[in-house]
């Protein structure tokens, strides 16, 4: 991993640590290895500790008095509560997107959709999931509501830590793809009410197949 240029300060440090937590390189409940990360990123303790304050505010880490920071464990209750909020955010973003989306934005989402279908048909689930997420983010961006976008990004980062892909049936994947097809139809028709309902249902289905059984209450 490349060292960080000093002039990017704590924002990029926070993003690097956020990605490490999301990808499981820093596991829930583990201490954040400050000295190691300073050496790895090529920064001093000051921007690192400022980054940890940002991540603590976002709910990624817990600051320990005179003992550094620890990665927060995501519980079943927290995950369920987070998804309840995200369902409302995605539903609202769909309604707003239908009223405000540009033709270029719609075209971009359609291109992503067909790429996602190709990955699904070829069995490339890694790229399928990445493209799937890009579609959801593009719909949220098309809402043109900065507050909604900021809150969604923060919550979305948190739930990325959860494993959603284990032991999923063909029926689940088929249903998920069908729901994405319905999203595109609703966007083309500028049918905000319908898109909002589809997005809410889609996220509820995702929660039901997440790794809840592996998590503490």
From TrEMBL:
CDD domains: WHTH_GntR. Gene3D superfamilies: GntR ligand-binding domain-like, Winged helix-like DNA-binding domain superfamily/Winged helix DNA-binding domain. It comes from Vreelandella sedimenti. Keywords: DNA-binding, Transcription, Transcription regulation. The lineage of its organism: Bacteria, Pseudomonadati, Pseudomonadota, Gammaproteobacteria, Oceanospirillales. Residues 7-74 form the HTH gntR-type domain. This is GntR family transcriptional regulator. Pfam families: FCD, GntR. InterPro entries: GntR_C (IPR011711), TF_FadR/GntR_C (IPR008920), Tscrpt_reg_HTH_GntR (IPR000524), WH-like_DNA-bd_sf (IPR036388), WH_DNA-bd_sf (IPR036390). GO terms for molecular function: DNA binding; DNA-binding transcription factor activity. It comes from the Bacteria.
